[in-house]
Amino acid sequence: MSAGGHTSKGNLGVSAPFNPEPPALLGAPLRLLLIRTPSTAQATLGELFVDGFPFCETLEDPVRELGPNGEGKVYGQTAIPPGTYKVVIDWSVKFQKKMIAVLDVPHFTGIRIHSGNDAGDTEGCILVGHTVDGPNAIHGGSYILPLLQTVIEDNLANHQAVTLEVR
Is residue 24 assigned to a domain? Predict the structure, then answer.
């Protein structure tokens, strides 16, 4: 905790020490942690932490129980399974720009972290935003995404691994 002993809480009520200085993100592997709330029929909200600090809101497709061979997955309408994944920045043929990619997700390909507003924008990807707008929408991704991408690019440029743990 800081000298004042203050804590801040993200939208999910997870306490984190209040620190007016951004976390030191370079020089060590970068850990992204996505903590989900229970799904609605349309979407799954969550909060993304960067090295333990609340960073932004997330929105994904609904979480579905998947069998050992991916049974139960609805193409373009299913959140990725919980787990820890490697994160890189690479070229997206679909979007024609460099984007955040989540690699080696069982039964999924082409998973990205990008901006968007609701489950219609996800197709299995993770949307990031600044604010939650009801149980099935977020906003502010065009502001938050470049900040997240810069943090990831800086770590990768310094030869530091980046992982995403999804809970």
Answer: no
